[in-house]
Amino acid sequence: VESLLGVSEERTLEGVLAESWEEDIENLKITFKLREGIKFHNGKELTAEDIKKNFEYIKHSPATLRYNDFLDSIEVVDKNTVVFHLNRWHNQVIVEWGIIQIFDIDTIEAKGEGWATTNLVATGPFILKEFQRDVRSLWVRFDDYWQEGKPYLDEVEYLYIPEQSTGAAMMEAGEAQIWLGADGLNTKNLMDRGFVRQTGWGSSLNVLVPNTYDEDSPFQDIRVRQALQHAIDKEALCEALGYGLMEPVHSIAPEGEWGGGKVYYEYNPDKAKQLLQEAGYENGLDVPLLALVGSGGRNELAEAVAGQLEKIGIRCKIDIADAGRYYAETWNGVWEGLALGISGSAHDFLTGFQRWWGHNGIYKGFKRPEELLQKSRDALLVAETAEKIKITEEMVDMVMEGAYVVPLTYQLAGFIHDGTVHTNYLRQGNTRWDFADVWLER
């Protein structure tokens, strides 16, 4: 599935389905000019009317179309030109809307949303031929793909392998070329055997997020939140679980990102205990810790974090959740106590901040203070890069000085392959994979 725009290896926007685009801030509009001759998998030509239908289809779903309240109307100028009219301008809509995946809405409406959950008609280089939930999917070459001479591969097969040991065995036996889900131990073991780990500028942070939404949460008290910050030995986490791939991180913005590189709290368990006592928890407290299920039904990072917190008097009952419940509670709802989560980078950290921590950010259990909410809204109206950097730094400071999020570990997003695969995956961030350009050595 493809989008109007994509993020490049240089972390700038470039055209995919759109050959050009123009932001007219004064007149509150964004114009996209489509490439000619693009076809859907069913042979139908992609037109500006299809772009309009896609956005109208998802306009009333904030989870799908971020900042949908800024979209006033969509105008089809001609077959290949579509104009988005805004009721207000801000600096995030172009990247958020530009990467929306484009489908043939006519087919979805004809066959129903139920059909669309296991089928798709889009413009990408491969057509979905077979799909078995939690087992496999098979994609075959789309011969009418719009990039001449591509894709290079005849087919791509995804296999869903829940057990790490099975995945490692398949890679060593040559039964797969790429493994996207290898943990740190198996990644290191395969690298020692000559397999290749590929990374890009995209990054992943492990974070601990206390519930500050519920009024009766103990984490309404900043001293309890600060105790969390001082209780975690991040270097020890990386040494025990990172296998040389993790680094400790002290801010929600990693070093090198806008607002990154600053140390707000040092590891100091005695200080953590003191803060708990000052907050009235002389005997500590008991809290649940929500974590995503991992290999073997465990979450080793959650176990390590819980062990460190117990030393200062915060006793965690680990709640291992399957993906459905975990994301329902962390991204779309509110959890009880603590949640072990992730955050990531984007083409710049203003976008990264807004996606995860801004006024419309992912974690709903993090109740943003009014000052941060206003600063986040103001950040949408900043046009110059220097001002974007400055306001991003200010927002990162507000989150960290308020101790609302505990950054734990950082690593570049990566995957393992057998050395025969040539792909730019992850070099364009975590949200894009140009399958048309992938090729294998014989």
In total, the number of strands is 20
Number of helices: 14
Task: Return the average pLDDT rounded to an integer.
Answer: 93
First-residue to last-residue Cα separation: 27 Å
How would you sum up the major sheet? Answer: 7 strands, mixed
The structural class is: alpha+beta
Uncertain runs are: none
Shape: globular
Percent helix among the residues? Answer: 25-40%
Mind telling me the C-alpha Rg?
23 Å
Strand portion: 25-35%
What does this structure look like?
With 442 residues, this protein is of the alpha+beta class. Helix content is 29%, strand content 26%. The chain has 14 helices and 20 strands. The strands form 6 sheets. Strands 12, 13, 14, 15, 16, 17 and 18 form a 7-stranded mixed β-sheet that branches. A 4-stranded antiparallel β-sheet has the order 4-5-7-6, with helices on one face. α7 (222-231) packs antiparallel against α9 and α13 (370-379) runs antiparallel to α14.
Concise structural overview:
The chain has helices at 48-58, 93-98, 105-111, 113-116, 164-172, 184-192, 222-231, 234-241, 269-278, 300-310, 323-330, 349-356, 370-379, 385-401, and strands spanning 2-3, 5-7, 13-15, 18-24, 29-34, 71-78, 81-86, 101-102, 126-132, 136-141, 155-159, 178-179, 196-210, 247-248, 285-292, 314-321, 338-344, 406-417, 421-422, 439-440. The chain is α+β, with helices and mostly antiparallel strands and 442 residues long.
